[in-house]
Amino acid sequence: xxxxxxxxxxxxxxxxxxxxxxxxxxxxxxxxxxxxxxxxxxxxxxxxxxxxxxxxxxxxxxxxxxxxxxxxxxxxxxxxxxxxxxxxxxxxxxxxxxxxxxxxxxxxxxxxxxxxxxxxxxxxxxxxxxxxxxxxxxxxxxxxxxxxxxxxxxxxxxxxxxxxxxxxxxxxxxxxxxxxxxxxxxxxxxxxxxxxxxxxxxxxxxxxxxxxxxxxxxxxxxxxxxxxxxxxxxxxxxxxxxxxxxxxxxxxxxxxxxxxxxxxxx
Length: 266
Known about the structure:
The chain has helices at 37-52, 70-78, 97-111, 130-138, 194-202, 247-261, and strands at residues 2-6, 9-13, 31-35, 58-64, 83-87, 115-119, 142-150, 157-163, 169-175, 178-182, 206-208. By secondary structure, it is α/β, with parallel strands linked by helices.
């Protein structure tokens, strides 16, 4: 039995940063990278299920990213994942969530997991689309924003609660295998011990190419994406003005500003 957990090494802005020369992203020299917060919770949920069952259960993490994502994958191994897979090809550069989901679905078909747990969204892009899109490619049942889960490995169904608008919770039974996107707060992610960190550093990370998954360059990158970034820029800063004087003087000045804004004579 197996649970597949897609993870992402997200990028956060440093205090000072610059936009790339092509205007489509931030210069990578100004980015701080770490494991996506939502993926930390989905991994913890998978590891908790593994620890609570007497049946053999394998937790496999997978990332669609270049070699720099190995750091995040080893962090997952140190927290209890059994294996790590990284898929990459230079053609995958610029892939949107749909193209990434296509790759993850191909990995799922190869690994044949009983469940797929994904984070609700990533903290850098926040599309909240990858997990559900992967379910569509797999034709699996799916649910988003899962805040509580009852699942026994090998079971034909699982029961979960998910968040709806207005603070309403919905309890649902879903057929397995299924794709669930896990919400923050479903558990408390563990810290990796020094021993587990050292052990994770010695574990291999399986690297797959597109051809290993039966995919081509046309399935990823801009060619395989439903969207692309046109440009990234800093918005113009607004201007503030402090209106001095007593209440009557402030009201008179404010009325004048409104008339000026509407193009009326003073």
